[in-house]
Amino acid sequence: MEMSALTRSVVKRNHAIIAPDGYINSNVPGWTGCTVNVIINEQMGARLCQTLITLTDAGRLVGETQVSQIFFYVVQGRVQVAVGGETRTLGAGQYVYIPVGQSYEFTGPEASTQLLTFHKVYEPLAGHATPAVFFGERDYRKAPIYMNDEALRIQELLPNELGFDMAVNIFTYGIGGNLPMVETHIMEHGLMYLEGQAIYMLDQCWYPVKKGDSIWMAPYCQQWATAMGQEPSVYIYYKNVNRFPTVM
Ligand SMILES: NC(=O)N[C@H](N)C(=O)O
After folding, report:
1. Domain-located, residue 52
2. Which structural domain range is residue 218 located in?
3. Where's the Cupin type-2 domain (predicted)?
């Protein structure tokens, strides 16, 4: 292992950059034969949890969702999942959304399979059914242009329906693409870069980021990004959606 006293990771009150160089394993009951890096969690002030699971070929994830729904995305490798009466093999770019109160089992992974997860406490909405298990895959053809800018494309991975209180999207910035404005909004984000490099501005701080890095943005954390280099920059991100803004 290369030794270093340097890191690109930062953890602030309303945002964080988590680079892989600082990962330390967490043991999660029921998830065996794997390392689990808890990248974003309520311990840092977030209302989502984001983890990266790296499986050995003996890896097995057995559990039942309780109050939190979980979205599993295969970053690399292949694994079998049994959930909701179905068994499927998921490869890179494929995913499954598991609603609350659902048992699941992931088995038979290729060595070094990586799964990214997003977890959120589900908020039911009167008159709308709790979502069912949902499978899908990354597909650039299903990524419409964002805000009339040909360089930006977003694929929504979950149905755009009020029953869902979280969205997971893949945002592709073509070479030279950048967010058209500084965004300032109530929605929170957790994200991981799947490809390329970028410069991200978070609350007036500027960060170089690249494939493998994760970012947490609290509500109202100001955000802007531009792709860098000679390849597109792509991230998968979580966003809370579709619920009434609360006042205590
Ligand atoms: N930082 C971001 O990628 N924000 C997105 N445009 C979003 O809020 O969906």
Report:
1. yes
2. 140-240
3. 70-107
